[in-house]
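re: ur question from earlier - yeah i can do the single chain one, its not a big deal. heres the input i used so u can compare w yours
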Amino acid sequence: MGKIHPKKKLGQHFLRDKSIAAKIANTLTGTGYNSVLEIGPGTGVLTSFLLERKFNDFRVIEIDNESVHFLRENFPEIKEIIRGDFLDLDIDRFFPDKMAVIGNFPYNISSQILFKVLKHKDKIIEACGMLQKEVAERICASPGSKAYGILSVLLQAYYETEYLFTVPEHVFVPPPKVKSGVIRLKRNKITDLGCNEALFIKTVKAGFNQRRKTLRNSIKSAFILKREDYKDFNLRPEQLSVEQFIELTNWIENQRILSE
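and the output i got, formated as tokens:
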């Protein structure tokens, strides 16, 4: 690892198992895009295997100055090292065409990373990464399971989600207190959900905001409605599929009373 020291404030846990790094690098299908961005390369253990794949346009983004200097010295073949935070990155400026993102995502911002992926869903057509196992399972969970939640519904509306494999704690420096999971998101063919997208997001968040209650209670707390007789109001949010949330969104669109 050279002189790079993991920084707690950045949520850094450096992967030291090269076989796992190679396996993660190979999760990218390489289909349908020219650009690949690695988020938070750190010591470059994943970077080295991504470089071997010879993508047409491979770049990295790193917030840690120590890591930036290390990468410049040890990986001169990287096309560009973007210095900064992925959450603040102007994706359209750096990547005009279809792209993929990959990385060993810091646990403390992994959900925010995926919400940004979702925001750029028409450009980011594949996302592969390692994150906390619990979050990885949540993203890929099916309706009816306890893990199924906001991230599950919103991401599965636009991406095919796959939980690929689990990574143990001892292969990191320092070892985290939890296991990690590696996932792959592949953009599906949906270009139009068939509902108001902003309202869909609000509906999903409202439903899971009080997930122990039935939809009747959670939706009533978020919207003023003309009627309260929706057919699935006695269900809890984790019981609804993406399609059912779309249907609920359209019902709310017709029944809500907009406040002044």
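The longest strand covers residues 124-132. not sure if urs matches, ping me
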